[in-house]
Amino acid sequence: MSIIETALQKKLSFKIDYGEELEEQINQLVDEIAQRPVIAEQFPHRWLAIKLLEEDRDIQIKLLALKDGASLIKVAQKSIELLKSVQGDDLDIQIADRRYRWINQLVNSTVQRPLDDKRAFTDRFDQIVTHRYLGIPIFFIVMWIVFKLTADVSAPYIDWIDGVITGPIGNMIVAILNTLGLRDSWVSSLFVDGIVAGVGGVLVFVPVLTFLYLALAVLEDTGYMARGAYVMDRVMGKIGLHGKSFLPMLVGFGCTVPAFYSTRTLENEKDRILTGLLVPFMSCGARLPVYILFSAIFFPRYAGTAVFSMYLLGILTAIGLGIILRKTVFKNKEQSALIIELPPYRAPNVKTVWLYIKERVGTFLKNAWTIIMATSIVLWLLLAIPVNGQGSFAETDVDHSVFATVNRVVAPILKPLGFGNWQASGSLITGFLAKEVVVSTMAQIYTTDVLETNAESNGFLQEIGEIIFTFWGATVDTLKSLPLIVGVDLFEEEVETEPTNLMNAIYASFDASSGGHGVFAGLAFMVFVLIYTPCVVAVAAERQELGTKWMWVSMVGQLVLAWIMALAVFQGGKLLFG
Amino acid sequence: MNPLLIALAGNPNSGKTSLFNAITGSKQHVGNWPGKTIAKKEGEFQHRGYDIKIVDLPGIYSMSAFSPEEVIARDFIVQEKPDIVITVLDAANLERNLYLAVQVLEMNVPVVIALNMSDIAEAKNIQIEREGLSQALSVPVIRTVARKEEGTRDLIDAIVDTANQTLL
Amino acid sequence: MLYQVLHEIEKADGSITLNDLSIKLGVDRNALEGMLQFWVQKGRIQDDSTTCDDVVCSCGPSFISSVDCTFIAKMPKTYSVRTQNEQKEKGN
Prior knowledge:
The structure holds three protein chains of three kinds. Chain A is mostly helical. Chain A is about 70% helix and about 0% strand. Residues about 1-10 and about 485-490 of chain A have low confidence and may be disordered. Chain B is α/β, with parallel strands linked by helices. Chain B is about 40% helix and about 30% strand. In chain B, a hairpin with a 6-residue loop joins strand 2 and strand 3. The longest helix of chain B has 16 residues, at about 150-165. The two termini of chain B are about 15 Å apart. Chain C is of the alpha+beta class. Chain C has a two-stranded antiparallel ribbon with strand order 2-3. The two termini of chain C are about 20 Å apart. Chains A and C meet through helix 7, helix 8, helix 11, helix 12 and helix 13 of A and helix 1, strand 1, helix 2, helix 3 and strand 3 of C. Strand 2 of chain A pairs antiparallel with strand 3 (about 75-80) of chain C.
C-alpha cells in the first residue's frame, strides 16, 4: 500500500466511537470478516460487523448464501450474547443511541438555530396556556366565554326564528288549512299543536348550535383545542384515566354516539369500559336546547353562566365518578405515558370552519325532520286521545289524555326533586329518544294554542318581507350587543328577554309542582337532563362498544345518579336559600 | 472519458428529486428497481472528462432493513459500489437528516454532502458551519438550493475533485 | 439519546408534549420525531395515528373536513409508550 493510498484510506474511514465494549467486539468481528475472502470482498468490513451486531435479518440471509457466512453469524452470535448480558438490551438500540448522541454533539457544535418567530410565539403562548396550574383555569375561562358569547349572540336570532315560525309560517299553514276547509278539525290540531309546536320548538335552537359550533370550530382550527385536550389530559392522568381518554370525552361534547365509538382507541379493556361509562356525562349538543330554555326561564339574567355550569358539572361528575370507579371496580396498575404533538397556532380557515358547522347543524336539522317530526306526531296522538270519556278525540284537555294518565304513574318518583308532575316525567321519558325531544315535548304539552287558528294570512309577499325585516332587526340587535360582550360588560348581567308563553307556562308549572321553589326545581331538572340516560342511539352504541352488561349498569346507574343529584340540588337549594 | 457511477441518497422531502433534476436536466430515464415496484431514476451527463451516470436511490431515513426502500438503497451501495454517494441533507432539518448521512459514511464509500434547501435554513436564521461539518465528517459539504439550481455546479465540481483524489 | 428520550417521558409522569421534550433534551423537534419513530419500529412506543379505526376517523391531521366526522375536536398526533405487558402481547 502506498503512502497516498493509506492516507486516503484513513481519510475515508469515518468512524463513530461506539464505546469500549462494543468497539472490542466490532474489531473482533472485523478480523473474522477479513479471514473470509468471499465475504470480505463483498461488504465494507466495519459496516458488516455493525450490521451483524444489530442482528440485521436481511444481512443474515445474504450471508447464509455465501461461503463461510453461517460460521460468521455464529461468531457474531457469541459477541451479541456477551454484550447483551452486559448491556441488557438489543444492540441495535445501543448502536442507534450512540449515533444519535454523536449527531447531537456535532449539531450542537456546528449549528446555531434561533427559535423561529412562529415557533417562538407558539412556545411562549403555550407556556401560559398549558401551564401546570394556570392551564386548567384558562381552559375553563375560554369555555365560559364561548358559552357566554353563544348565548348572547344567538338570543336575538332565537327570537327571530320563534317569531317566523309562530308568525308568518304558522299563519301560512293555518291559512292553507282554513282554505281546505279544515278549520278547527283534528288535522288542523295535528299541524298546529303537533308539528309546528314540536318541530318548531326545536328549530328555534338552530342559532345557538350554529354559534356554539362556530366558536368551537374556531378554537379547534387555531390549534387551541389541542392545548385544552392536553391540559385536560393531565387532569385525566391524575385520576388514573388513560391519557387517550380525553379524545372520547371531547367528542362527547358534540355527540355521545361517536364518543362511544372513539373509546376504541383505548387498547386496555378496563380503560375502555371506564372511559365509556364516563363519556355520557360530557354534555352533548342535543342537551343544549334544554339548558338554554330552562336558563332563560329560571335564570334570565345569568343564562350563559347557567348553561356553562351544566357543562362544568358534567365534567366534575365524570372526574368524581372516575376517581371512585378507579379505586373500586377498575383498579389499575401501570399507566402508559403519552407524547402529544401540538400543532403550531394559525389563523382559522374559513372553509374548514364552515364545513364543520354545516356537518353539525346539518345533523341537528336532519334529526328535526326525522326523529322530532315522528315523535311530535305520535305525541300529538297520545295527547289527543282522551281517557275515561273526558272529551272527544283531539278535543280533550291534555290533562286527560293518555299521555298525561300514563306519566302520572311515574311522576311521584320525581316529586322529591321538585318536578313531580306528568309534564316533566313525560318529557324526560320521550327525551330518551333524543335529548332535544325534551324541549319539543314541553312545547307541545304547554302551549296548546301557539297559533291563532283564526288568523288570516297577510299575503305571501308581505310575510316574506316581514321575515327579512325581522332578520335584519335580529342582526342589528346582535351587532349592538357585540361591543358590550367584548368589553367589560362581559361580566355584567344580561338583559332579560321577554318571556314567551311557553316559558311562562313552564315556570308556572314548575313553581306549582315544587311548592313555590320553581327556581330550584328548574335547576334540578337541568341537572337531571345532564346526568340521566343518553338517547336511544347512544345506548345502542354503548351496547356495541361495552357489551350488554355494562350498558345496563350504565343506564341504571345514570338514572339513579341523576335522581340523587337532582334531589341534592332541589332539597339543598330549598334548605340553603329557600 | 472515464466512467463515473454516482448514487444519490437522502431523506424523503430533502429535495433529492429536485437536485436530481437540476443535475441531469432532461437526460433521464425511469425504470423500476429489479423485482420491485419502486421507481428507479437514472441520468447521464459529462463533466471535466468524466462520463457520469447518476442513480437516484429511494428516499429513506435510515440504512436499517425496516423497509424495502432501505434495503434497495444499501444493496445498491454495497453491490454496485458507486464511486461516490451524494447525500442530500435538508439544511433546515439537519439533525434528523444526519442520521442517514452518518450511516452512509459508515459504509466506507466516498461521500459528497449536498446541504440542500439552504435558502430555507438561512431564512429561518439557522447558521450552519459548513467547514466544521465537513471536518467532522471528513467529506466535502456543498451548499445547494436545488429548486433554484443554486450550487449544483459546485456540487458537480466537488464530485469530480473527489473522484480525482480517490480514483487516480 | 434514545434512552434519554424514554427517560424524560417516564419522568413526565403522564403526558408530555413533543415540544417540551425537544426543549428538555436539546434535540431538534424533527430529529426527535425520528427517534420516536425508531422506538416505534422497536415496538416500545406506538404511533397512535397508525392504529386508529375508520369509525373513529381520528386519523390524519385534517379529518375535521371529512364528511362523516361528527367530532368536536380532532386529536393531536400522539405516541404512547407501551407497557411491558403490551410489548409481550404484541410479541415485538
